[in-house]
Amino acid sequence: MAVVDVSYDATKRELTTDKGVLRYHEAGSPDAPPLILLHGSGPGVNGWRNYRGNLGFFAQTHRALVLEFPGFGVSDAVEGHPVMTAGSSVIRFMDALGIESAPIIGNSMGGVVGVNLAIKKPERVAKLVTIGGVGPNIFSPTPTEGLRLLQEFTDAPDRDKLVRWLNSMVYDRSLVTEELIEERWAAATNPDAQQTAAMMYGSKAFEMQQQFMAASDAPPYWAMMHKVSCPTLLTWGRDDRVSPPDMAMVPMRLIPDAQLHIFPRCGHWVMIEAKQAFESTVAAFLAD
């Protein structure tokens, strides 16, 4: 099998749409079935940093496409709440590339986006893989330890707070290298990324969200997960301190065709910390 070049420069692409430029990374044969990977949120996050270690693996069997959501410092920002605009950006992305339907892998926020798409536009999502973050807290407090640390960083960013948050993301703290810290610190100071973080995780935004939920008659997205009709693989780190695995109980029960795989000695970044086990599990699910 030929070696695929999955370096940053070799895989970066961009699309001009009616709502600005969407940037993404692509690897694999253009004739292979598409696979869309959606990133999570947090300081300095983007699609490349979430999936750069997995791109080569999935490119062996798929046209692997890592979309950069608007508002995280890579694709052009758009007005609106980042989670809401992320879903529409996926549809714009698929339409621009002529992709009618594809399996989706979503990390944390990306998983929530994938679930919402599977509920509202089921014809576009062939299969769904989520990585933590989907569903409500059952036994764990809200916000969780990892989200409180993220909130503290968002309200008053500094390097030490970033390190504390990064340590909460993993089981093995040796993964939080000086290179990772510096990379995330530089990206987290991007104006678009800071504005997005404030809208999602600032203490004021959290209070407003709680007030809105209390006053709203609309059901939360997770209460509609019985409408997810595609085969779904829920993956979770057993030691996730951002979205603890008790959250998996609701999607596991409500999504009709769902299976759950929990990885030991693993935190929130399953695709990084349990890389080989995650890849083989997802590959088997996609091939089934």
Task: Please characterize this protein's 3D structure.
Keywords: Hydrolase. Residues 33-274 form the AB hydrolase-1 domain. The chain contains 13 helices and 8 strands. It has helices at residues 8-11, 47-51, 55-58, 82-97, 109-120, 145-155, 159-168, 178-188, 191-201, 203-215, 249-254, 270-273, 275-287, and strands at 12-17, 20-27, 34-38, 63-67, 102-107, 125-131, 232-237, 258-263. Strands 1-2-4-3-5-6-7-8 form an 8-stranded mixed sheet, sandwiched between helices. Helix 5 links the parallel strand 5 (102-107) and strand 6. The radius of gyration is 18 Å and the shape is globular.
Sum up the overall morphology in one term.
Answer: globular
CATH architecture heading of the domain at 8-139 and 219-287: 3-Layer(aba) Sandwich
Total beta strands: 8
The CATH topology of the domain at 8-139 and 219-287 turns out to be Rossmann fold
Strand neighbour order, sheet with most strands: 1-2-4-3-5-6-7-8
By helix and strand content, what is the structural category?
alpha/beta
Q: Work out the strand percent.
A: 15-25%
Low-confidence stretches: none
Counted by DSSP, the helix tally is 13
Which percent bin holds the helix content?
Answer: 40-55%
* CATH first level of the domain at 8-139 and 219-287: Alpha Beta
Rg from C-alpha positions?
18 Å
